[in-house]
Write a structure and sequence with these properties.
The chain is mostly helical. The protein contains 19 helices and no strands.
């Protein structure tokens, strides 16, 4: 290359050159899809990720042909005529006009056209491309300061918080659709939802949205049976968001996952701490945690008398606090079943008698009590054959 073809750097040129070089990357980045976990995101990319043919279906084929034939003068005449006729593709036609001018070397006119697009059509999918073309036209004229200013502005957009949040919103839309399908007959796709929730968290989600999305990602792990990952996510949520409105839900589900992982002592500690620290919450999870504490003692099949007593104590505590709860009847029945499992038949019968007396109408309840009191021939007053009663354990 001859020396005439080289640009000789001058003082202060370094930052401008760096910005221009970065601009070459930005030209491609402006039309690229956000980093997607799979192909589905590409189908829903932002407006400046769509190919030109998709964005400009209304442009006359004659204009396209003249542009392809490099007959830019004729293309400009056809574009001006189309603009004069009016329509809904003025932004696209203006962009093509700027391109035609630039391609035939009229960079000053091209820069003016591209600048007008951003001002006249701020919401157009073409305005961002026009900004890059304006910078390129300025650079062609040697106006590197203008080019640098445009590229820096686009860099702030492409790598700024606003752009990241736009990309995160795309991921969230897909995640929510997979987690809660609009079709009532469709099954949730928790694996896909987890993929998109994780992508949203990594894309620059708004701080106020992060806790809810983190909880949703943890729920996906729980639904997928990846209990270790779910436990880690729920525990991290509880640690990082101690005062959040979703804390009760997270800690309740943490206990669920620990119990499902056969980590009964940890589940018990999680739920006991939840009841102690958040017991005044009006969340329905408080009553559910109080009820399910008994499961951490093996109810309804406790392994020994000690677990039976502790499990029954947990259920009785639940009944004392939530006597009208929908789970109250089940709690009474579980106490009886647990006693029966440990062969405490008299205790089981007492519990069942009380349960039936509470559940049945008075007349039927009286009949039941008389039958139990009398017992069948050869049995005691609870109907258990003589010689078959086991001594109470413990």
């Amino acid at each position: 290359m001859s020396r005439q073809g080289l640009f000789v750097p001058r003082a202060g040129w370094g930052s401008s050159a760096a910005a221009l070089l970065l601009g070459v990357c930005f030209v491609n980045a402006a039309g690229a899809e956000p980093a997607a976990p799979n192909e589905a995101v590409k189908d829903a990319a932002a407006e400046d990720s769509q190919p030109l043919a998709v964005l400009a279906p209304a442009v006359d084929d004659a204009i396209r042909q003249r542009m392809q034939d490099r007959a830019y003068g004729e293309a400009l005449q056809a574009i001006d005529a189309a603009i004069a006729r009016g329509g809904q593709a003025i932004d696209c036609l203006s962009y093509l006009k700027g391109r035609a001018l630039a391609l035939q070397g009229e960079y000053a006119k091209a820069a003016e056209i591209f600048s007008s697009i951003s001002k006249a059509f701020p919401q157009s999918p073409w305005q961002r491309r026009a900004r890059f073309e304006e910078a390129a036209a300025a650079a062609r004229q040697g106006d590197y300061q203008t080019a640098e200013r445009i590229y820096r502005g686009e860099a702030d957009y492409l790598f700024g918080t606003g752009r990241k949040q736009q990309i995160a919103a795309i991921y969230l839309e897909f995640a929510d659709a997979a987690f809660h399908p609009s079709d009532p007959l469709a099954e949730p796709d928790y694996r896909k939802a987890l993929e998109f929730y994780s992508a949203a968290l990594g894309a620059g989600l708004e701080p106020g949205q992060r806790p809810e999305v983190e909880l949703q990602a943890a729920r996906c792990c729980q639904e997928l049976g990846d209990l270790a990952a779910a436990i880690e996510r729920f525990a991290r949520f509880a640690e990082e968001h101690p005062g959040h409105a979703l804390l009760v839900e997270a800690r309740y589900r943490l206990g669920e996952c620990e119990l499902a992982s056969e980590r009964r002592a940890e589940a018990r500690r999680t739920w006991e701490d939840l009841l102690a620290e958040c017991g005044k919450s009006d969340s329905p999870r408080i009553a559910e945690a109080a009820f399910r504490l008994a499961e951490t003692w093996g109810v309804p099949e406790p392994a020994n008398a000690a677990e039976l007593d502790l499990g029954v104590a947990a259920l009785e505590s639940f009944l004392a606090r939530f006597p009208e709860h929908p789970l109250a009847a089940k709690a009474r029945l579980l106490i009886a079943k647990s006693a029966f499992h440990q062969r405490r038949f008299a205790d089981a019968a007492d519990r069942l008698q009380g349960f039936l007396g509470d559940e049945a109408p008075i007349s039927r309840g009286a009949s039941r009590r008389r039958t139990v009191e009398r017992g069948p021939a050869g049995g005691d007053r609870y109907g258990i054959p003589q010689g078959h009663r086991a001594a109470p354990a413990g």
